Amino acid sequence: MANSAEPGAPTAAGDAHDPTGGGFAAGAEGRLLFWIAVAFSAFQIATAAHVLSVPSQILRADHVGFLMLLAFPLVASARGSGPAGKALAWGLALAGVAVAVYQYVEYEPLILRAGDLNGLDLVFGVVALATVFLAAYWMMGPALPIISGAFLLYALFGEYLPAPLDHRGYDFAQVIDQMAYGTEGIYGIPVYVSATYIFLFILFGSFLERAGMIRLFTDVSLGFVGHARGGAAKVSVIASGLMGTISGSGVANVVTTGQFTIPLMKRFGYRSAFAGGVEATASMGGQIMPPVMGAVAFIMAETLGVEYYEVVKAALIPALLYFASAFWMVHLEAGKHNLLGLSRAELPSPLKALRNGWFLILPLAVLVYLLFSGYTPLYAGTIGLAMTVLLILGGSVALGLPSTVLRVVFWIGLGVVAASFFRIGINAILAAAAVLVVANIFVSGGRDTLAACRDSLAEGARTALPVGVACAVVGVIIGTMTLTGVATTFGQFIVSVGESSLLLSLVLTMVTCIILGMGIPTIPNYIITSSIAGPALLELGVPLLVSHMFVFYFGILADLTPPVALACFAAAPIARESGLKISLEAIKVAAAGFVIPFMAVYTPALMLQDGGPLAAGIGYLPAVAYIVVKAALAIALWGAAVIGFLRAPLVAWERLLAAAAAFTLVAALPMTDEIGFALAALMVGQHWLRTRASRPAGPPGSASPP
User: What is the pTM of this model?
Assistant: First the structure.
């Protein structure tokens, strides 16, 4: 079966960082897995749209069952396992399905005998845990299973540890009940969010990508900044940031947009390590960029019991500063090495790109509007996905109409049908989609459109596998902390440190988040770190959302930090450079990611939160304006210090002065702001005077690119 989800030759980056091999293999097994993936996506859409109504526990169990059914055989196929390996993979997959079937058949009896499991319950509980752990190991390596396994062992044997680490003790049946049944273990909030919000938004991104969103973002970025100094790297920052608004996956962004942007940056003179670092930094920034935010926003809202838009509001200014920082870094690097932009003659027109693809922005715009209007993410995502499908199916039908007038009438009518969702529900959308599917069978190019939609369903399910499996296995950690209260022990240690030094407590939390985040996907990393460190920061007086954003940021930065640095090693084969060297450059470019969380703790107005002495002293809105200006200045100074360039190359003492000014602006202690502004004025003023006479008369970047 030919399908666009089957790559003929996966990239090196894809082989190394996509455990499923980047697609579905040819042959009978590949076709079977492809259609299982399509069925998985169809099931998730049906439950999200309430076409199929199932109890929450059954939905979670079925979601994990589908994950197991796909994960084992896909990874075995991608690794080229022999008959014995594939037989083992299918055996484990069917064992995972058996657990879901058992949960469905025994749904009511399990509720009635909660806390008093029988022998068969224990067997299926052990099978559930074993398959989830093995799937996580097969897909993501040993890091996450080892951490989750350590928590499981703590639940079973922690009573034998010395105080204060010990607990009262729990028997085997009680631990299995906690982990494999109910909504506290592997079927807890992470899997619930994966089965609803996350899967739906991954499908949404998959459909938009196939509709041409990557091309639109790239062409617009090239048209607007490609001609500027260092334009190739600026295109990378903007395109990856825009892609992050719909995909939210850092490594996926690297291996998609990076295939274009990294060679482009190298062609125009950027060092290989720096080009890879820019792409990795910008791609990881997609996980803090609203509206999707790597799907963590949905889990954060669910965990904290706040509206989704509150999470997005807190993330907005830091995300903009993060990308502004990356943009500034590449601008300085281009100035330091005198790098030109691209020729205007070879650049696409951004206005033409928008004219040709403006309709692709409609679903994203509607999604953002609904999310900020207070609708649930599930409702907003369902509408966004439905609109995207109607646009894709309607596009080929409209092209087959004989006149422009008929096309206009057609699109108006389809828009009215889409808008009717708000009054008469999903049935109108389903009916319209069914009519368009039939119409596409008969119009020119329609069958290709249907194939693209089918492939998007399969691709979305495949992309959701690592996230879903991670959410399932990390539930063991949540279950252990709920059962034993172990998070309190670590929290008390953080609080005891913070009583003498809040800064030291924050640094300790940062290091913990980076260590725990090495090699672990963003979602489970956030769940682990927020459960352990979040309450401690809250007790130290850090506002709720700020404390969770703090651990979220440093969990993301773990993917840029040596020695693991997943995003950087994903960029390595594309850049043809060491992943470690790329990681060191990425840390420099991502300076804002390290600075902003600390500034937000001392001045919550940076995340549009109330509280903090500054807001109390000068008012909320002035505090927001002040902290944004101060953060931007600190980032600008840090960039100059790291790159060693402003108007001209900096001498050593200027770099030290810039770094000192940036540090004092971040510290937010008595008099540090005044010192920081004074040092900044001194550094910028004397640098301007020193370079005024020696600055070349020609425009920057007058040298030809290599």
Answer: 0.75
